Amino acid sequence: MFENLKRPVVASLTLFALAALPAGAQQLPKPGQLALETAREYREQARYPESSHVLKVGEADPIRAKRTPTKQSRRGPDGTGPELAVWASAVSVEVGKPIDLFAEVASGGQPVLPLEMTAEIAGPAGEIVAQVPYHDDGRTPDRRAGDGVWSARFSMPAGLDPEGAAPYMVRATARLLDGDVRQAAGGFLYSNPSAHLTGRYRDAVRNGNLVISAEVEVKEAGRFHLAGTLYSLAGDPIGTAQAAANLEPGRRWIQLSFYGLMFHDRKVAGPYRLGTLALATSSRMPNALNDLVENAYVTKGYKLGVMTALPFAEPKLLESASRLEAEAMRSQVAQ
Amino acid sequence: MSGRRLVVSCLLAVALLAVAGQAGAQPCLIFVHGKQTNTDTFTNYTAARNYWVNGSHDFIRTATKSFATSYYVVGYNGTRPYWESQAAGEVANEIVNATNGGADAGGHRCATTYAQGGTFWVIAHSMGGAVMDYILGNNDASDPNFNSNGPYDQVAQRLSMVITTGGAHRGSQGADAVCLQGNPLCSFIAIFIQSCDDATYWLRSSDDVQVRTYANAPAKTIYLTGGYEAIFGSSACLNGEDDGVVQYASIFACNGSATASYDNTNVCRNNAKQESSGFRNLDAAHENHSDERDDSDSDTRKQVPDGIWTCSGVPCAANTTVQSSMTTARFISILY
User: Which of B78, B116, B120 is nearest to B95 (CA)?
Assistant: First the structure.
């Protein structure tokens, strides 16, 4: 059984040759093809540790993407327009800070002006903690009067600071001029993180990897997760790194290790800019998310030669790849 | 023993070995069900097993090629949020049990253990997709919720891949509708989801409850297929193509808005997923949310962008009809 595991390359070549045979129209996937493609992907992924990855040229910053709020939209009865879309200014807001809420009604991409826009803010147990009126009059946070984007600035009532974080639902209602009603549900996370970044950073190369340390002020012991995206000074995202640690109260350091191979793959020497940095308290679900920090730090200059050019060879992925290649071989032989 | 009897005995032995070896040579399929309105699948094996059955139609029988491939049926509490111990934690523990050769509650076990070199595919439906996203996205010590309530690291190490059918990776607009309490519109979705219970609350489409907010890219690839057969009434309240309960943006784990409209021609490609890696399109079927997991509707299959089907040796164009009659269970059975 394990002989095949020792000959993954031979197995792969054999099966790739089989897969390359002339095909008819609308060909069924060959047995083993999926296993083989998956194995190939795992071998590629294994070049990096799971905690740090290179980003392809043009690939968006994944940490920023996860912290970018999205719209939630709903059409009217029977799937007919116009459609109400709601969104917030952030995925998460820290206790004591306001969050801006937005809504718009549109039909065929054109704004439809409602008569009134309001929302209920509902807690995790369904309790209504506030009624919020929206406006479209150009007053902060509304960007422009009459543009169809209705806005509201909302601060959570006192006494609702969560232990960790709590999701709040925004149930928005638009009353249209013709008397029709549209409803949509959005939301935001109300976070009470147990640590904050102090703004102190330092960097060094260790074992061929760029290690950026970030200082955090911990007010309550817990588990903390830090993720960052490194950019070139030209503004291109290069790669990400993440780390998690259990920390006691006080000033502590969390280290992000950016795997050195990414600088060779992207052919970028230092200095580098820590473009986005996301801290979270992950002692419990839901995690308490700190506000995203942008342009946190610029490293010293580094030559490419000090960074490792060796693939990481993540053993778990390579093991999976070998097993899948053997499975693919058996599937092909069984046909 | 005469020469003739020896030959017959040898042939018989070879045949027996071939049959016995078939289950071991193929991946063990581990089935993870979706959202439930009660705890039956968690407490009662028959309920968990019947999740995949509709009358004489049996998804597991078809996917396993009439049980030629070994399988294991997971039962978890589908009324709890995807991340809780009775959801993700239970699923993780059961998957590890399966890979150790342990039996499910119905006595079925994988033919070859992980230690013996076995491979394991998870087949997950609906909320099972979000559960697997959470487990595989929190398998490393550097992940935010590493092993938070189960052996996620062992699951990630031992699984070869996951296939989701109608996966609620980005939640469901049906959950939004149900949780808009007092709203008469779209309330017929409640037929499928019933109430805004804790599991439903965490399957809404807003960012604060999305699994991607609390997990990283999956450690093992999650392959995506799902249905585009509308359910009268409920589909009108879902944006773009849908299976009557989950919209394409979620079935295909798209980045951006979970309520964006997609169809077979333009659903997000492999480079536009909710994570920067780990999600891959397979195809789409003219099945609704129930058909996707009960093998009852052998119908048209369509190519989607970056899908698996090839036409004359190259990837078929999106929305090409690639099969006129094939269930998702049958489709899975031809992949191994």
Answer: B120
> What's the domain count of chain A?
2
Query: Which of A43, A73, A240 should be substituted to probe chain B, the one whose Cβ sees the most B Cβ atoms within 10 Å?
Result: A73
Identify whether the C-beta of residue B117 lies closer than 8 Å to the C-beta of residue B77.
Answer: no
CA dihedral A12, A13, A18, A20 (to 10 degrees): 110
> On the CB side of B24, how many CA atoms lie within 13 Å of its CA?
15
Mean pLDDT for the stretch of residues A111-139: 95
Mean pLDDT score of chain A = 91
Could you tell me if residue A148 is left (phi over 0), alpha (psi between -120 and 50 degrees) or otherwise beta?
left
pLDDT (mean) for B200-204 = 95
Structure confidence at residue A1 as a pLDDT band (50, 70, 90): very low
Alpha-carbon distance values, A263 to A75, A208, A297, B175 (Å): 46, 10, 18, 43
Domain ranges of chain B: 26-333
Mutant choice from A191, A327, A335 vs B, greatest count of B C-beta within 10 A:
A327
Residue that has been written with the tokens 């709020």 in this structure: A69
Instruction: Say yes or no for a CB contact (<8 Å) between A324 and B160.
Output: yes
The helix/strand/coil state of B294 is helix
In a domain, A103, yes or no: yes
CATH classification for the domain delimited by B26-333, as one of 3.40.50, 3.30.450, 3.10.450, 2.60.40: 3.40.50
Percent above pLDDT 90 for chain B: 83
The answer to whether residue B94 neighbours chain A at the CB level (below 8 Å) is no
Does A197 lie in the same domain as A287? Answer: yes
Same-domain status, A187 and A224: no
Integer angstrom CA distances of residue B273 from A301, B170, B213: 34, 10, 13
Residue of A nearest to B221 (CA): A38
Q: Are residues A125 and A202 in the same domain?
A: no
A175 strand-pairing partners:
A116, A181
**Overall size of chain B counted in residues:** 336
B247 in contact with chain A, both atoms CB, cutoff 8 A? no
Q: What is the pLDDT of residues A232-266, one digit of tens each?
A: 999 999 999 999 999 999 999 999 999 999 999 99
| pLDDT attached to residue A28 | 83
Q: Model-level pTM? A: 0.93
Residue in B22, B206, B313 nearest the CB of A185: B206
- Burial of A21 from C-beta contacts in 10 A (0-12 / 13-18 / 19+): exposed
Give pLDDT, residue B237. Answer: 79
CA distance linking residue B99 with residue B317, whole number of Å: 38
| Burial classification of residue B229, based on how many CB atoms lie within 10 Å of its CB (0-12 exposed, 13-18 middle, 19 or more buried) | buried
